[in-house]
Structure formats: structure tokens, C-alpha cells
Specification:
Layout (H helix, E strand, L loop, with lengths): L4 H15 L4 H9 L5 H8 L6 E3 L22 E8 L2 E8 L10 H17 L3 E5 L10 H17 L5 E5 L2 E3 L4 H4 L3 E5 L4 E3 L3 H8 L5 H5 L1 H8 L4 E3 L2 H12 L40 H8 L5 E4 L7 E8 L2 E8 L10 H16 L4 E7 L6 H5 L2 H14 L4 E10 H6 L9 E4 L4 E3 L3 H8 L1 H6 L3 H17 L1 H6 L5 E2 L5 H12 L17
Parallel strand pairs: 3-4, 4-5, 5-7, 6-8, 7-9, 12-13, 13-14, 14-15, 14-16, 15-17
Antiparallel strand pairs: 1-2, 2-3, 10-11, 11-12
């Protein structure tokens, strides 16, 4: 017998009520501000007709402060699984139109269940944050809910990629869940993130500040380094998420989405020969090199506005997904400072966790000198890069383009830190320090006694470069695999990557290494 019409009508009514969220008035207000609803965000992210929602009819169970009289659709969060470009993804999207998107026990339960699904099924997790924080009426139960979410963020770390979109308020303890994910995307308008707001800061310390100074996308992208991508609006944030996922495997047991059916690049590109300036001291934009190397000039830069002296990005070389770490001489001469060390180390560890080969483009004069850097812990922070590279077991290829001096030469993944291949352009200088500084130490007496100190200095600098700084010296010692013409770069890297894809390296059994945090 067919199911009773009344039962189907009841189902339709309940679905309609649950999907109405906080009501049309609140939805209209969001649209006027240029923001999407929680459900619209999910619909824009997920492939059409593939979303399977979990917990649509869940309601809160709080009976304090009149809450028993309030209906909160889905308890303020939409959770489920769907496909993004054909691959399953787990999603949790907080709904600000329902109780301000505040987190209570059932709200947290829905999120933790979808996180457990992500772990069990090996799917990436996308969390869209838009919440007023802990639901005060539920007291410690709401705090417990956050703790359960944090615990699972850590459990998922290195297991599946985690992406957080900050598309609304994200304050107090709520900010720590995004901070525990791999990539944070934040919209320019309508979003804020901080532990304590301006009012609390003023009351506690007397300091005055604005919400924009401490909690805006610009502040987090440029100063604190807490986020990785800045989005113009919700649609842009979703587009970034999709593009980012296109470079990532679904979990740590899979290879990245390589396109191995693409032809290996075997031709040369003479235009790369023109990128390095004739004046060795002149900076150049390393992104020009990356554009020449990656397929179709397409790459996605991570933390573009933070620590600009180092570039980290994803791209493909002859179809193979790679993570790039590149010095940028256009900023701070490409030297490695505290922020650059943290940025690079985090990216290296992500690539290693998810089987993404690493390509390093080196043009580094050294670690950043200065009292502020020393007192700020450049030793500890710089050691993070050494630790991350040394621990990484994925294919590692290093290309020395120009300067590679001192400890920074090692920190950019020399052969001694486990690089599988080290290539150098003829313009490479590999040495303890630059010729200018070295000559002062090695030929100090000769310079003082010279008839023409300037000419003598120039002579000794050239001699030092030829004897100690040229790539051929390192090649003779077996520390450089090959010296190549810049025009050959993509061909050489393409072949090396294809040869190294089968790399398998195991380490002694232990819980984990102790990175110098």
C-alpha cells in the first residue's frame, strides 16, 4: 500500500520549517549585507544534488532561561556530506540566523559527528564559521562542546585536510577550532576573529584598539599570520576552497590528485634565462620563475600577504602536484626571519603529511640579522624549518638559483637535510657567506697593505667566488646533483619528480618528533 498522504505532508512541513532557519526576515538582512545564508554557502560549495544532510531535525535540549520555549532549527548548524568536483567532502556550516549560530551541546554533537565521519571515511573537512560563540544559557555544556570539537580537530590533523572559512563573527574560544585546521579563509566584510574584543582589552589592560585592528581579515593576513587566504565575499571564499581542494588528496593514505596522463615537459624555455638580473645585488620576483615552471602558469599561493620574503604555494609540474617553498628577494632580500620560518615550516609539514612532493627555489642571503630577531627567538623559529625538512619523507627537490649562504643554505633543504635532488643554475653561489663579507675576514691584511684597496677587494671577491662560492665546488663535493641551464629547469624538475614518485622512506618507530615550538 502507498504511504499515507498525511505522513508525507507532515514530513514536508517539518522539512520546510527546519530549512526556513531563522526566518525570511533574518535571511533578507543577510542578503542586504552581501552575505549568504549557511545553507546557501553549502549549496554553492557542493556539487548539485549531492548533499546528504545529517541532523536536519535536531533541536536543543536546554530548559534554562526560557530556552524551552524557543525553537532553533537544526540547533544552528548544517552538517552533512556532499561532493566537490566529484569527491566526497564533509561540511559543517554554522547558521547565524538561528540563535546567532551559538554553540550548544546538540550543535556541537552534530559537528563532532560529521568530524568523526570525516575521520572514518577519509574525507576533507570544510567548516564554515559564523557564530556568536558559546551559548551562555547552556553553561559548561557549551564549553564542553567546544572541547570536543577541538579534540577532533587535533585527531583529524594529518589525517584529512581541514579547511575553515571565517564568514562571520568568530570570537573567544570559538577561534581555536579554525586555528587548529590546516587552512583558514576569511572574508573581508562581515567577518571578525579574536579572543578578546576591544571592550574587554580596554577594561583589562587600558589599551584602546578597534575591531579592525585586531580581528579583521587584513590584520590576520598581514600582521598576525593567523589566516591563509583573504576572500572578497562568501562566493570568493567558496571558490578558494574548491581551488585549494583541487590540489589536495582526500586523506593521508592517498596520493594528491596528480594528472599523470599529461605529457612530461621535455622542451626548454629560453625565457627563464632572462629572469636573473645581471647585477647580482638586484632583487627579482621569484613568482616569475614559478609561473614558468608550473603547468599553464597556474598556482595558488598560501599566506600571500604574510612574511612576503618567502613564498609557499601549490602548483603542478607536468601534472604532478607539488608544494613550492621559495625565497623572495623582492622583500627583505629574501632573508629568513621569524615569520618566514614559521610560515615555511608549517607548509612543509602539511605537504609531508599529505604526500605532496616539495620543490625549493633558493635565493637566500642568510637568516635576518638584528636585535629584534635574536631576542624574538630566531634560533628557535629557524630550527623549525630544519626540523620540518629533516623529518619530511616526501620527494624533496632543491634548485639553487642564486645566493645560498650559511645556515640559510641548509635551512632551504640542502642535500644534508635529505634533498633527493639538488640542482643549481650557473648563477648559484653556495658558501658560508657572501664574497663581500668573506674577503674582509680572509684577506684583511692583504687589503690593508694593497696599493689600491678597491681593486684588490674586487680581485679577491672574484677569486673567492670562483674557488668557494661557485656551484661547481659543491658539485665536485657531491652536494649538488647537477648544474643546469635555467631554460632546462622545467624539463629537469619534471623528470626528477616522475622518477621520485615511488619514493618510500621509513623512520624509526616513535610517537613523534619534538619540533622546537
Amino acid at each position: 500500500m502507498p504511504i499515507k498522504k498525511e505522513l508525507l505532508d507532515t514530513l514536508k512541513d517539518k522539512r520546510k520549517k527546519a530549512k526556513a532557519a531563522g526566518g525570511q526576515d533574518k535571511i533578507d538582512k543577510r542578503h542586504k549585507k552581501g552575505q549568504l545564508t549557511a545553507r546557501e554557502r553549502v549549496e554553492r560549495l557542493i556539487d548539485p544534488n549531492t548533499f546528504q544532510e545529517q541532523g536536519l531535525y535536531v533541536e536543543h535540549d536546554c530548559h534554562e532561561f526560557g530556552m524551552e520555549k524557543k525553537y532553533l532549527a537544526g540547533d544552528g548548524v548544517i552538517c552533512g556530506m556532499g561532493h566537490v568536483d566529484g569527491r566526497p567532502v564533509s561540511v559543517a556550516s554554522q547558521d547565524f540566523t538561528v540563535g546567532g549560530g551559538t554553540l550548544g551541546s546538540k550543535h556541537a554533537q552534530k559537528i563532532t559527528r560529521i568530524m568523526d565521519n570525516a575521520a572514518e571515511l577519509g574525507t576533507p573537512l570544510v567548516a564554515i564559521n559564523d557564530s556568536g560563540g558559546a551559548r551562555i544559557q547552556e553553561g559548561v555544556s557549551s564549553l564542553s562542546g567546544y572541547g570536543q570539537v577541538f579534540y577532533r580537530n587535533v585527531y583529524l590533523s594529518g589525517l584529512v585536510p581541514q579547511i575553515a572559512i571565517i564568514a562571520g563573527p568568530c570570537a573567544g574560544g570559538a577561534a581555536y577550532s579554525p586555528a587548529l585546521t590546516d587552512f583558514l579563509i576569511m572574508t573581508k566584510t562581515g567577518a571578525s576573529m579574536y579572543i578578546t574584543g576591544p571592550e574587554v582589552i580596554k577594561a583589562a589592560t587600558g589599551e584602546e584598539c578597534t575591531k579592525e585592528e585586531i580581528g579583521s581579515a587584513t590584520a590576520h593576513a598581514t600582521v598576525s599570520g593567523n589566516i591563509h587566504f583573504v576572500a572578497e565575499n562568501d562566493d570568493h571564499a567558496i571558490a578558494i576552497t574548491k581551488r585549494l581542494l583541487s590540489f589536495l588528496p582526500s586523506n593521508n593514505m592517498q596520493d594528491p590528485p596528480h594528472r599523470l596522463n599529461e605529457e612530461i615537459a621535455l622542451t626548454s624555455d629560453p625565457s627563464i634565462n632572462e629572469i636573473i638580473p645581471k647585477d647580482f645585488k638586484r632583487p627579482f620576483d621569484t613568482k616569475l620563475v614559478i609561473e614558468k615552471i608550473v603547468d599553464d602558469g597556474d598556482f595558488i599561493e598560501v599566506q600571500e600577504y604574510f612574511a612576503k620574503n618567502i613564498i609557499v604555494c601549490f602548483g603542478r609540474i607536468s601534472g604532478i602536484v607539488v608544494g613550492f617553498i621559495a625565497n623572495q628577494s623582492s622583500f627583505k632580500a629574501g632573508s629568513i626571519d621569524i615569520d618566514a620560518s614559521d610560515k615555511a615550516a608549517r607548509f612543509i609539514r602539511f605537504c609531508n603529511a599529505f604526500n605532496i612532493p616539495i620543490v625549493n627555489l633558493v635565493d637566500v642571503p642568510g637568516f635576518m640579522p638584528g636585535k629584534q630577531q635574536e631576542s624574538g627567538g630566531i634560533i628557535r623559529h629557524g630550527a623549525k624549518m630544519l626540523s620540518a625538512y629533516s623529518a619530511a619523507t616526501v620527494p624533496k627537490i632543491t634548485l639553487i638559483m642564486r645566493k645560498a649562504y650559511g645556515g640559510a643554505y641548509l635551512a632551504m633543504c640542502s642535500s644534508d637535510l635529505g634533498a633527493d635532488r639538488v640542482y643549481a643554475w650557473p648563477s648559484a653561489e653556495i658558501a658560508v657567506m657572501g664574497a663581500e663579507g668573506a674577503v674582509n675576514i680572509l684577506y684583511g691584511k692583504e687589503l690593508k697593505g694593497a696599493d689600491n684597496e678597491q681593486e684588490a677587494r674586487k680581485k679577491y671577491q672574484e677569486e673567492y667566488r670562483d674557488r668557494f662560492a661557485s656551484p661547481y665546488q659543491a658539485a665536485r663535493l657531491g652536494l649538488v646533483t647537477d648544474v643546469i641551464e635555467p631554460s632546462e629547469t622545467k624539463r629537469v624538475l619534471s623528470l626528477a619528480l616522475h622518477n621520485l614518485l615511488g619514493k618510500r622512506l621509513t623512520r624509526p618507530p616513535k610517537k613523534h618528533g619534538l619540533i622546537p615550538l
